[in-house]
Amino acid sequence: MMARTLNTNLISNKIPYEIYESSKQGAIAVAQMIATLIKEKQRVGENCVLGLATGSTPEPMYAELIRMHKEEGLSFKNVITFNLDEYYPMKPESSQSYHYFMEKQLFAHVDIKEENVHVPDGTIQENDIKEYGASYDKQIADAGGIDIQILGIGNNGHIGFNEPGASRYSGTRLITLDENTREANARNFSHLEEVPYRAITMGIGSILKSKKIMLLAWGDKKADAVQKSILEEATESVPASLLQAHNNCVFIIDTAASRLL
Asked: Any idea which fold 44-239 has?
């Protein structure tokens, strides 16, 4: 498996990154790192807390974790998960919900305990969302904090559903989706008009509390956002660039996404 790690002490990039020849290779490498931590935690009788993402980017990573569970006996009984986001409003049983996505892509295929799975609730009454967001962040803290946070990146640099302009101190909250984000996600709906205009998302401040952050990016369309996040100054107009403030963050990218580095 070919990978290249660049040292931030030697060149101008502000976030370390590893380049893989293909998205599949990168996804397998991330899954192996997650599996290693799960097993290390199991050996000392501790839970492993994972922050999870949705969308097409992490799908091959989830597929590899399922393979390791079925073929290598990797257990998820000590794993606690917190997903980044959910459309609002959205019923969990809807085929477009991120509850449904996670069941289909991972949870239904491994031995994770149902009570250890957390996905933001898209049915919360709007007046209760501020309190709900604070309680979601508290649940993460009470679980010991996120050991590894998995992220994707939007073409506009968003992480989770933190769109350009999101505060670096933000917690879990209700946000309005940018039109280009809605357009990018329209593939999961019959028509663009069906894509929700809002979502509940973990905030950038919430994400930055994670012990380790791994951002995955595949394909040429992500190259511009990757370049701005890694090489340019941190700015709230490119939310992923705010990850420069984290002391244990790495971008896992394929050759196409590395085009501008």
From this structure: Rossmann fold (3.40.50)
